[in-house]
Amino acid sequence: MKKFTLLLAVAVMSLGLVSCKETTKDKTESAIESMKDDASQMLDSAKDKTEEKAKELQKAAEEKLEMAKKEYEKAEAAVKEAGENASEELKKAKDAAEAKLKAAEDEVNKAKDKLKDKMND
Fold it and tell me: What is the pLDDT of residues 24-42, one digit of tens each?
């Protein structure tokens, strides 16, 4: 009877260990699957955030480019306007210089004529 009780106890313990081993295996597999799902969700979330941030950065870069283009166009218009104003001012200055030169040439010619007249007298 002792042998039978001992054999029965060993058999129950063996079944208990096998059952415990299977339960542990199932729980481990379940935990691994859960970790895989969590990691996958975190990767998807990180991907979405990265894409969103990239779009924001691209939009900001495009806005800066547009602002730079507008500033360039304003500067170009200002340079053109300044050039036109400068051209008009230069033309006026040239005309004034030409008038002074002609007046100076006329005075020189008058002075020459007076000298000739005096020399001839």
Answer: 777 888 888 889 898 899 9
Burial class (CB in 10 A: 0-12, 13-18, 19+), 98: exposed
- Cα–Cα distances in angstroms (integers) from residue 48 to residues 14, 34, 45, in the given order: 51, 21, 5
Task: Convert the pLDDT of each residue in 71-92 to its tens digit.
Answer: 888 887 877 777 776 677 777 7
Tokens at residue 107, please? Answer: 């005075």
* Residue type for position 68: A
To the question of pTM greater than 0.70 for the whole model, the response is no
Structure-token pair, residue 65: 């480019």
